[in-house]
Amino acid sequence: MTSRTTQTVVHFSSAFRLTGFDAPQPAGDYRVDHDEELIEGASWLAWRRVGAFIHLPAIAARASTRQMVPIIPADLEAALEKDHRPS
């Protein structure tokens, strides 16, 4: 099966928390990986998301260790919408 990973950067203006996080994460820019696999048999190229991961800590943070944490894409979208909503 053919697979690919695409990487995006998301920005949070304030601290946020996603399902499964022990603590809120500070505002900043975060790398997010989306793993996808090719849907076989389609008459055009189609990809299905099979996983998503956020890189912690934020890009600008100085840290001796970094980790990739699995996330639910819908939770990330909801957190971004909440963060970008005018107060």
Describe it.
This protein is mainly beta and 87 residues long. The protein has one domain (3-84). It is 14% helix and 40% strand. The protein is built from 1 helix and 4 strands; from the N terminus they run ββββα. It has one helix at residues 73-84, and strands at 3-12, 28-38, 47-56, 67-70. The chain has a 4-stranded antiparallel β-sheet with strand order 1-2-3-4, with helices on one face. β2 (28-38) and β3 (47-56) form a beta hairpin. The radius of gyration is 15 Å and the shape is globular. The model has no long low-confidence stretch (mean pLDDT 93).
Distance between the termini: 45 Å
Number of extended strands:
4
Give the class from helix and strand content and strand pairing: mainly beta
Individual helix count: 1
Tell me the series of helices and strands, N- to C-terminal. EEEEH
Number of domains: 1
Low-confidence stretches: none
Average pLDDT score: 93
Give the strand order, joined by hyphens, for the main sheet.
1-2-3-4
Radius of gyration: 15 Å
The coarse overall form would be globular
